[in-house]
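User:
Hi there, any thoughts?
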Amino acid sequence: MGPAYIKLPEVTLVAVTSVALEATVRALTASLDQAEFGKALLLSDRLPRTALDPRIQWREIHPLKTRSDYSRFLLRELVDHITTSHALCVQWDGYVLDGKAWNRVFLDYDYIGAIWPHFRDGWNVGNGGFSLRSRRLLRATADLAYDTAQPEDVFICRTLRTALEQAGIRFAPEAVAKLFAYERTRPTGNEFGFHGSFNLIRFLDPKEATLLLQSLEPRVLTRSEHKELLLLAIKRGYVGTALVILLRLLEQKQLMR
């Protein structure tokens, strides 16, 4: 375990999941090895198979059976678990890379996530898989109806953005988002964190990548995500990993019948 480089008592590290539980715990632990948070929470309907890191507190929630269930929980129920001024939301494929890259300016905003390069209208911040959210934002979204198939981050940062900004919510500008994290933009190597399975696999050796993918439930990744990972595994020469991905694609095809 490496040293905690920074102390963030005003931030709760939190992961919400009903799938990829072991990989999610790994992401929480990796983040805790870079920073000391006010709290570290695993919100899930079940405990991981292995003993939980004592720095992480598990709280039981109802099962999240769909991606819409996950979105609805973050929008409506996450606020009930956060007592600090901000929450750092992580997923199994996104976590803190470098605690020393933390910038106090991050806390000036109610929402920061990695840039979405496919949106070119100025509303391109940001990805929710690794995101910093104020409790003020969480309170605001808890009062809003959610009955859409949109992912919660798109719902917050695009569909609701005008209404939230009129209520005083501050979204980080692109320059700050670039310091905070990356997903589908070219990394500088100086970001606080990242998101994306296609980025995660770059940090793993072939054995680690294979074991991680084998631990995931069949529907955690979409077919397009599997295909993207397959190309990356082939490019890196990860033969065993590529085979696992191919088998999972076949398994998904069977499940869809």
The chain is about 40% helix and 15% strand. Strands lie at 6-17, 35-44, 57-60, 86-89, 111-113, 131-134, 181-182, 193-194. The longest strand covers residues 6-17. The radius of gyration is 18 Å.
